[in-house]
Amino acid sequence: MLTVEVALQKVLTHATKLAPRTHPLEAALGLLLAEPIASDIDSPPHDKALVDGYAIQAADLSTGQAEFEILEEVTAGDVPRLTVTPGTTTRIMTGAPLPAGADAVVMIEYSELRDETHLLLVDASAKPNQNIMRRATSLAKGTTLLHPGALLRPIEIGVLAEVGRSQILATPRPRVACLATGNELVETSETPPPGKIRNSNGPMLAALVADANATPVALGIAKDEREHLTECIRKGLESDVLILSGGVSAGVLDLVPSVLTELGVKEVFHKVQLKPGKPLWFGVWENEDRRVLVFGLPGNPVSTLVCFHLFVRPALDYLAGRKSSWQTCRAQLTAPFQQRGDRPTFHPARMHDLGLGPMVETVPWRGSGDLAGLLAADSLALFPAGEESFSPGDEIDVILLKA
Predict the structure, then answer these.
(1) In the chain, fewer beta carbons within 10 Å around the N or the C end?
(2) pLDDT tens string 202-255
């Protein structure tokens, strides 16, 4: 049986970064850029005022007070028509182009209007370039602003808009088909009759996929019937990744591995040395131009969650060209813990900051079917395989569950 580390390496070995695609700018947030971006304009496109005030020649205010003739008013979006000369001024608004002849802007707070066409500036000083942003100060036409591999945050989206890029080439979000299997499952909107349970894994997987900056494709529930399961899996193989929950253990109706094999999915491994999540199945389907990663996750919801964080999420990061979003740390236990078993345990836990460094507390948990027990958890505490008693203050590895 594979260790977690070996199994993850096998998953990543079969993952290939997705080919770049063209995306509309409004859908590019969180993607990795796949082309260099140069500016097609100067920004600002003209010398502009940084304050509301009066554009003058700075030499006219050498004494701190002077009277001026007002030539015109220029607001943002307008173009000045007249040239500022000694003794004249243009009233100007923030962002408006600086008129020819002016080399400074005095804030409006220092002005006193004599009448509609005459102005007194008092207690004011002026130096060349005061309250002015010169053309191309922010960026110059032809300058490369962004390089391939840049993460497109809101800042980058704004810059791309500024330089006129409504379409960009970027590594896409992986499309991830999510399929819950089992005759015992009913839709979340239904009241389960005797022997049935609601499908919690499907919506949880879709949410986990979206949280990993990938695109979920919800396929609903597949019955434990070969024909129906085959049809659902075939649809799932149209995505970049297919995640199934349930049907991978050794029960009579655990048909997933055999159906996957019939559809040409090559098994890479089945079963991993961990708790919860031992029955994990992983394989690959491919043709001439496409490769699909296929994960068969155990049906118990906590096993599904743990296996997603340990194996699926790193694979999605790899496909999207991102660094692994795994967040781990060392933390001290707040209470005793008794580890028993031949598999490492990833126990639901909660982090604390008590001013003494990272602290971790295991939360009450009744096993892999106890999803509600994870409501208090924000991490997974790792306890190695074997029989061992842990004491308060002992340091262990912790995987942080991304909010």
Answers:
(1) C
(2) 999 999 999 999 999 999 999 999 999 999 999 999 999 999 999 887 555 578
Model pLDDT for residues 354-386, shown as the tens digit of each residue = 777 899 999 999 888 899 988 999 999 999 999
Which is nearest to 225 in space by CA: 180, 181, 270, 178? 181
Residue 328's nearest CA partner among 344, 311, 310, 341 is 310
What is the C-alpha to C-alpha distance for residues 125 and 65, in angstroms, rounded to an integer?
8
Map out the domains of the chain as residue ranges. Answer: 4-18+172-319, 21-43+137-171, 48-133, 327-400
What is the CATH architecture assignment of 4-18+172-319? Answer: 3-Layer(aba) Sandwich (3.40)
Spatial separation of the C-alpha atoms in residues 358 and 355, rounded to whole Å: 8
Q: What is the CATH number of domain 327-400?
A: 2.40.340.10
Residue 330: how many CB atoms within 10 A of its CB? 11
Taking alpha carbons only, the member of 390, 392, 336 closest to residue 359 is: 392
Q: Does residue 197 contact residue 263 with C-beta atoms inside 8 Å?
A: no
Task: Name the helix (H) or strand (E) containing 197.
Answer: strand 197-198
| Average pLDDT of the residues in 177-200 | 95
CATH number for the domain formed by residue range(s) 21-43+137-171: 3.90.105.10
Residue 138 Cα distances to 133, 262, 358, angstroms: 9, 59, 42
**Is the Cβ–Cβ distance between 265 and 214 less than 8 Å?**
no
* Contact between 208 and 308 (Cβ < 8 Å): yes
Q: Residue 256: which residues within 8 A CB-CB, separation 6 or more?
A: 181, 229, 233, 244, 246, 247, 248, 281, 296
Is the pLDDT assigned to residue 128 strictly greater than 90?
yes
CA of residue 215 relative to chain centroid, distance: 12
pLDDT score for 250: 57
What is the token pair recorded at 43? 């920004």
DSSP H/E element including 268: strand 266-270
Per CATH, which fold does 48-133 belong to?
A: Molybdopterin biosynthesis moeA protein; domain 3 (2.170.190)
Nearest of 84, 52, 81, 80 to residue 69 by alpha carbon = 84
Phi/psi of residue 278, nearest 5 degrees: -50, -40
pLDDT of residue 251: 54
Mean pLDDT in residue range 270-285: 96
Distance of CA 338 to the CA centre of its chain: 37
- Alpha-carbon distance of 331 to 334, in angstroms, equals 9
